[in-house]
DAGKc domain-containing protein (Stephania japonica), 355 residues
Amino acid sequence: MVNRIAVVMAMAKPSLARAEHHPMAPDLNLDRTISRGSSSSSARIVFVVNPKGANGRTGEEWKKLLPHLRSRLGRDCNIYESFTSGPSHAMDITREAIREEADAVVAVGGDGTLHEVVNGFFWAGKPVCACERDRNSTTALGLIPLGTGSDFARTFGWRNDPHEAVERIARGLKTRIDVGVINGDIGEPHYFINVADIHLSAKAGYYASRYKRFGNFCYIIGALRGFMGHTNKDLKIKVNGGVWEVFPQVTAICIGNAKFFGGGMKITPNADPRDGNLEVVILQNFKWYDFILKLHRLYNGTHLSVKNVTSMRVQSIEVEEVKNSGSIYVQSDGEHLGFLPRKFFILPSAIEMFC
């Protein structure tokens, strides 16, 4: 069983080869075992690495981290690495690792890589599981933040320090965290661990994703592009399966499982990914100059007392346009998901995570 994860990954992608303590190939496109524990019962941990993250900095920082990773975890763990080659690949790696009874899957990169790994914990609307495993034993989630943005880590007060992240894994302390779910009219549900958002902020995020090469400056570029041609819209909202209520002139809606998005903006300041709720923040009738005047309040999380800002705690929320235009953007954890209508709800204590 010790070698099954690496073997299955290699079989699934014929172009990938497994190596033992060999230098990484120039294109970083390989799966390999990087350390073995001292016994066959050692924990099996799969590191999912986005080598192109942060303009290639993630791959470079990962190479620098490997000696420390081996020395800190190698005695007690069988450690595998797998490099992503494109969109959605992290989801496939995660699902295969869980099915092959990995004890943990660790996302190495930014919020985008973490988002894909979290989605890999689910398939066809249900959690992925290893059929031969004891139901009381599950695969844990880990994070080593090495990407452009690490907003989810900020909720826990974690620094953008990979050595500190390795220590969290080495300690082995875990907590159950909630996961948000997004349903549309058709297709599979989508999962998010951080923040989902609607309208202006989602549009800005859509454009920001095109300028990741500029680091956190991409969020400013995205905001400028998002404001171009923006108009506030009347939206219908249903909370916890209740009655529909019209919210006029909505600028943006943010639905937080955690607190931060957009490179450090504390948009849902009361969100806690362990309390079984989503925090919903609705901005209405904001003009471009409102964001300039109130930007500091959005970043420090004091905007809930600002005029035209509404906050609520929910287990589910449905959002539709009053007059359907099919043009209201929806995103989660920085990934564009299409347009309204959508339903959002919480899965309490869905994943165990190193803390």
